[in-house]
Every structure is written in C-alpha cells, then in structure tokens.
Amino acid sequence: MLSVIDALEKVSAGCGLLPAEQVSLDAALGRVLAQDVASTLTHPPTAVSAMDGYAVRWDDLAAIPADLTVIGEAAAGHVFSGALAPGQAARIFTGGALPEGADTIVIQEDTAYNDHHLMLPLCRQNQSQECVGNFEPSRH
Predict the structure, then answer these.
(1) pTM score > 0.70 for this model?
(2) Fewer Cβ in 10 A, N or C end of the chain?
(3) Dihedral Cα 45, 51, 53, 58, nearest 10 deg
(4) Phi, then psi, of 135 in degrees rounded to 5
C-alpha cells in the first residue's frame, strides 16, 4: 500500500504548472497568485492612535501627575492641523493621526479632563499607537 505522501508525489509528478496570466480583479476570484504582490502604499500612511484618549509629548510626563492644556482633537481618519508644544495635549480618537510632536497616547479612562485641562497618571512612552505601515490584517 502507498503512503499518502508517496501517492501525492506520483499524482503531482504528472502535473505541470500552468503559465501565468494577467486577469482583471473581477476575474481573479478563485485563482492563485503566480508571484507575491507588494503594495506601493503603506497603511496606515502615518502613525495613528490605537484607541481613544489624548495625544501627548512624553517629555511632558516627567512630573506625574501632569497638567496639560488640550488644544484640539484628531478625529478618526483625520490629521490634526497643529503641532503640540510643551504642556499641550490633543484629544484623539481611534484611527486619528498623531499630531506633530506627540509620541504617546494616554487612554481616556486613565485621565481626568476639566475645562481644557488634562490630568494624566503614570503611563508608558509610545503606548497605544500604531506605527506607519503597521497594519496587519490578521491583527485587526
């Protein structure tokens, strides 16, 4: 009796590869790629927040608790128009682009906000952000 591996080798020995051909995306359903495909674009195109919270400068968190002024917001899929200066923060939503100068996101559950002032607890640098080109479909 043949093993499964031996049987597969005998069957595939009589089969050849079909030549590669280019087809439209609509006609590609059910087909196999002849070679790897590489994107010419990165996704996300800029560093974005992985959760709702506040974009801050890590250097502003040297003294905890930190009291920062909230100067605006970065909505999902949008870019914040300004840059963070020392002592400033921006409200940010999941998918919002990190403002220039920001390098850390503090999740909203770990903050106290009152009249444009944000009180922050201890947090980790670079937490809760997705880097440029870091999208992996298997993770989302």
Answers:
(1) no
(2) N
(3) -60
(4) -70, 125
